[in-house]
């Protein structure tokens, strides 16, 4: 092999080092124009001469770039091996993305080998040729025919033909006319379907802030009618891999610090409860300290946008999703519009650092709830179900939002009174009445959570009689054994001078209704305003007459909030006391898993939103119903992966607590276009900023800030040798339950969608199988007792694409099994939607697995171009999930 040429087994240099980051956006949010457009070309050879004259060579071309500054070769790409052919046509092309620092003067060296495989020992050099990018762009028909020179530079070893490829421009070229470039015909671009227009990824003005470090691969495959299609894969990292977990960590810390402060403000407690409070506060302090340390470690990492699989058990990175990437396949066919197919690949959200000896979240949470009642007896506290504690937290959150809102509305009312504005007064009163009634309904909700909270919230004094009545109420409930709670009630110093706060609150607002001639209909929940003029009820200064009423209402609101806060804090204290220590450890594990899942979901949502910005049907579906996010998992239900799947199930389910909101960015700077997370553990909102000009093209409902829902569904089918053991000797009930439960969720989503959105808004596909029929097929498969029934995954993925959804694929590290699944799905789409020739299906699959983005993903993760399989493992795989010979070997992953 020639000097200066890198080992053939490392044909692609790390694109992170070669890609140039976008400098910024213009006023319209457009990335600055790069020096060159995307340059892609195909390769073919003629009249190759093998080292042995009696045989035809197994041809392979290595592509290297000559660094103009350092004058040495940098390995860039490599074709597949075409066996026994002296005139080989290579399906794998070469691409220089627009981000690549190339120029017309960039020199490209093509080295042709006779190779059994891609190792130095089994390859013999045939010849090489060099050209510049400018030569190709200036050439007639943008095609070069170059003579291959042997190592001594004397003998001609054949020719190599370099033909520029243009996505979106494709002629009906016969197989025999591969190297002929006839004037091309422009094709419109579409996204996810054959009739929705959108901007291509490399020219999309929105990709810069979130997606980076692209790796591109290009191919040409034959169709059933002997024409040629162009296919490009583009894999990118996502900045949300780190930014979302960092934001979540900050929110977790803020929430836990707020809870510690609430516990401090409970006031004097009995010795028993005071000791428990101190213990709970110590636990929270430990979590806060741990999260602060993790956040500080993450802040030290600059410029990184993905966590490799080899770091999956690293504690400082446990909140970061594993190997998160987006992948887009773009297809150009003769006289057909382009099509795009997107997918997000990510390692299964799981707490790898904590391990899986006791199982994953699903099992641990079930066991914890079963044991919690016995803990409550030991710690002499009341048992609260997750539903009760979630309700208590929700009441606290909503009341904290309502208090300043009511205060603001009261100030508006006073301002209207000062201006003697009848319409302003009526509007302020109407909105105020709605919020006060909401506040009152929450006050009554408090009393349903706990008998003790009822007493703490409504008691006017701690008289012997009132405590006796409360104790009688408590001891007739399920908490009859909790004498310490009753004792604490005796010692409580919370009093109100007005008696029942709820009655006080209702009475205060009733004065408004009477004084201002507000009346509530007997059968309605909203207020109606009588048309009598307000000046009949007020004389002189309206504001002065309203001030005493306003003061009383404000005092009642303040007191109700304070009482409610203390009552619910006491409930949460009891729940936390029963959670020591297991509940706190589980909460940390759940935080970790959710962080990984949310980062992946946010990445997928942003990717799907950017792709569908010009699709009115998609945007309508988005704000009327929401999007389905389908997670495909290839984990086995055996050993550690069983625990991973249990973690993943809870993490994906917790995504139901997430809403999305699209906002107008403050500016077009990259930092202002990063998605932001706000909220608490029971509910998070991800705000996705868009440039001003882009934002104003959205439907009014979205521009007005409507929260957008996502419906996460998970389907799992194990395919490896461990799943074989589970199916024969173990337990696959977890997989069966997950698939059945999520099938029902997917079916319910489709029903809701069909009721609210015309199905004509959904994308069109060549395979016109009805979605209802696909759902029936999926339903039959999830209950079928069939081993490694991967049809579940195929059908669920097809339904997701038909429903305009977001596709995710996962295995333990999103590296090996995920690569087999993604490449299989891409080739199936080429076959079903673009008439890929049956004779080319296996060749296309092998090309993508040998030379495509997924083998580059393996290289990025473990610095080795081998899928981590051995022969014994592959015997257990379904045949279509097995990589080609020479691309696998047992390595540490």
UniProtKB/TrEMBL annotation:
Q: Keyword annotations for this protein?
A: Hydrolase, Lipid metabolism
What InterPro entries does the annotation carry?
Answer: C2_dom, C2_domain_sf, INPP4
A GO MF annotation of the entry reads:
phosphatidylinositol-3,4-bisphosphate 4-phosphatase activity
Where do the C2 domain residues begin and end? 14-146
Q: In which pathway does it act?
A: Signal transduction; phosphatidylinositol signaling pathway
EC number(s) given by UniProt: 3.1.3.66
Q: Which reaction(s) does the protein catalyse, per the Swiss-Prot or TrEMBL entry? A: 1D-myo-inositol 3,4-bisphosphate + H2O = 1D-myo-inositol 3-phosphate + phosphate
Q: Does the keyword Lipid metabolism apply?
A: yes
Give the family from UniProt: Belongs to the inositol 3,4-bisphosphate 4-phosphatase family.
Name of this protein: phosphatidylinositol-3,4-bisphosphate 4-phosphatase
């Amino acid at each position: 092999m020639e000097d200066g040429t890198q080992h053939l087994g490392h044909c692609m240099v790390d694109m992170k080092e070669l890609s140039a980051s976008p400098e910024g956006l213009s006023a319209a949010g457009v990335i600055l124009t790069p020096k060159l457009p995307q340059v892609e070309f195909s390769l073919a050879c003629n009249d190759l001469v093998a080292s042995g004259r009696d045989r035809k060579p197994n041809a392979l071309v290595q592509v290297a770039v000559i660094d103009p500054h350092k004058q040495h070769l940098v390995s860039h790409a490599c074709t597949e091996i075409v066996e026994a052919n002296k005139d080989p046509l290579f399906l794998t092309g070469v691409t220089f993305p627009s981000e690549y620092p190339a120029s017309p003067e960039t020199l490209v060296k093509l080295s042709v080998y006779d190779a059994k495989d891609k190792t130095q020992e089994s390859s013999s050099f045939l010849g090489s040729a060099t050209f510049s990018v400018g030569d190709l762009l200036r050439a007639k028909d943008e095609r070069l025919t170059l003579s291959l020179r042997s190592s001594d530079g004397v003998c001609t070893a054949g020719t190599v033909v370099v033909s520029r490829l243009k996505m979106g421009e494709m002629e009906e070229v016969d197989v025999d006319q591969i190297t002929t470039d006839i004037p091309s015909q422009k094709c419109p671009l579409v996204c996810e379907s054959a009739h929705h227009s959108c901007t291509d990824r490399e020219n999309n003005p929105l990709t810069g802030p979130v997606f980076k470090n692209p790796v591109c691969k290009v191919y040409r495959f034959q169709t059933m009618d002997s024409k040629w299609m162009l296919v490009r894969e583009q894999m990118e990292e996502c900045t949300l891999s780190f930014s979302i977990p960092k934001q979540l960590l900050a929110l977790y810390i803020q929430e836990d610090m707020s809870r510690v402060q609430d516990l401090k403000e409970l006031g004097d407690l009995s010795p028993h409860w005071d000791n428990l409070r101190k213990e709970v506060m110590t636990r929270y302090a430990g979590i806060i300290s741990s999260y602060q340390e993790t956040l500080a470690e993450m802040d030290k990492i600059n410029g990184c946008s993905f966590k490799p699989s080899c770091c999956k058990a690293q504690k400082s990175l446990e909140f970061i999703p594993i190997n998160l990437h987006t992948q887009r396949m773009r297809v150009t066919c003769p006289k057909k519009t382009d099509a795009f197919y997107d997918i997000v690949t990510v390692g299964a959200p799981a707490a790898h650092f904590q391990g899986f000896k006791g199982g994953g979240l699903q099992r641990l949470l079930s066991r914890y709830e079963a044991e919690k009642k016995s803990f409550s007896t030991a710690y002499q506290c009341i048992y609260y179900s997750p539903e009760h504690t979630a309700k208590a937290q929700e009441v606290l959150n909503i009341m904290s939002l309502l208090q300043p809102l009511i205060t603001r509305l009261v100030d508006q009312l006073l301002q209207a009174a000062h201006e003697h504005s009848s319409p302003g007064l009526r509007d302020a009163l109407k909105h105020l009445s709605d919020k006060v009634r909401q506040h009152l309904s929450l006050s009554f909700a408090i009393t349903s959570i706990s008998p003790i909270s009822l007493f703490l919230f409504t008691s006017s004094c701690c008289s012997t009689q009132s405590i006796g009545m409360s104790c009688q109420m408590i001891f007739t409930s399920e908490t009859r054994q909790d004498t310490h709670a009753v004792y604490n009630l005796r010692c409580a110093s919370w009093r109100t001078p007005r008696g029942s706060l709820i009655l006080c609150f209702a009475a205060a607002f009733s004065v408004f209704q009477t004084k201002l001639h507000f009346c509530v209909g007997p059968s309605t929940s909203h207020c109606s305003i009588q048309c009598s003029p307000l000046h009949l009820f007020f004389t002189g200064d309206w504001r002065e007459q309203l001030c005493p009423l306003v003061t009383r209402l404000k005092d009642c609101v303040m007191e109700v909030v304070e009482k409610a806060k203390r009552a619910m804090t006491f409930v949460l204290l009891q729940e936390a006391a029963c959670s020591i220590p297991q509940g706190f450890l589980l909460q940390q594990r759940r935080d970790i898993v959710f962080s990984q899942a949310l980062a992946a979901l946010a990445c997928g949502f942003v990717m799907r939103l950017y792709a569908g910005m010009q699709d009115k049907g998609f945007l309508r579906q988005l704000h009327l119903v929401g999007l389905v996010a389908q997670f495909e998992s290839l984990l086995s239900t055996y050993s550690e992966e069983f625990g991973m799947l249990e973690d993943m199930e809870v993490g994906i389910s917790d995504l139901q607590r997430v809403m999305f909101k699209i906002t107008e960015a403050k500016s077009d700077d990259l930092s202002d276009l990063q998605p932001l997370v706000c909220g608490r553990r029971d509910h998070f909102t991800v705000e996705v900023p868009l440039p001003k000009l882009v934002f104003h093209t959205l439907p009014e409902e979205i521009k007005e800030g409507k929260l957008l829902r996502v419906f996460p569904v998970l389907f799992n089918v194990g395919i490896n040798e461990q799943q074989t053991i589970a199916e024969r000797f173990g337990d696959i009930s977890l997989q069966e339950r997950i698939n059945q439960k999520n099938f029902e969720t997917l079916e319910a989503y489709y029903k809701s969608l069909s009721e609210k959105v015309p199905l004509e808004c959904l994308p069109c596909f060549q395979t016109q199988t009805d979605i209802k029929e696909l759902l029936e097929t999926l339903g039959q498969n999830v209950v079928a007792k069939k081993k490694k029934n991967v049809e579940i995954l195929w059908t669920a993925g097809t339904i997701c694409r038909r429903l305009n959804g977001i596709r995710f694929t996962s295995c333990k590290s999103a590296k090996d099994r995920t690569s087999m699944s993604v490449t299989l799905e891409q080739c199936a789409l080429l076959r079903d939607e673009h008439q890929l020739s049956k004779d080319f299906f296996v060749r296309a699959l092998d090309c993508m697995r040998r030379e495509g983005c997924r083998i580059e993903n393996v290289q990025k993760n473990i610095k080795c171009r081998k899928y981590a399989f051995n022969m014994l493992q592959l015997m257990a795989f379904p045949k279509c999930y097995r990589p080609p010979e020479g691309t696998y070997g047992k390595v540490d992953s």
